[in-house]
Design a protein that fits this description.
Elements (H helix, E strand, L loop, with lengths): L2 H17 L2 H9 L5 E2 H8 L3 H13 L3 E6 L2 E6 L3 H25 L1
Antiparallel strand pairs: 1-3, 2-3
Length: 107
């Protein structure tokens, strides 16, 4: 692999790692509804604002979300909606596996 390819794969892996936490994944899925203020995200996730801020910072660093100031509010929006396609694909496989496991337990 050349340096450009290695860097491309490294950045891609960072995005996958950022998506790999339940809270961050929940934020990404929530933002598919549109731009939201931090207060709405905190209410949706159900954890402390400091915790949400750390997760949003990481999502922003990887390019999954962007922010803008609107008066005193910070608004976040999803900038990589294709990430939701990947999440839906994974969810389909997970649901199928769970159904198969349940069928084996019942049998």
């Amino acid at each position: 692999m050349n340096l450009n390819e290695k860097e491309r794969l490294r950045l891609k892996a960072e995005v996958f790692k950022a998506m790999g936490h339940p809270i961050r994944l929940g934020i990404i899925e929530f933002l598919q509804q549109g731009e939201m203020c931090v207060c709405d995200i905190v209410a949706h996730v159900g954890t402390e604002i400091s915790n949400v801020s750390k997760h949003l910072s990481l999502l922003k660093k990887t390019g999954l979300v962007a922010d803008r100031r609107d008066g005193l509010k910070i608004m976040y929006r999803l900038t990589m909606p294709c990430a939701l396609d990947f999440a839906r694909c994974v969810e389909g496989v997970v649901i199928k596996r769970l159904e198969e496991q349940r069928a084996v337990m019942v049998a």
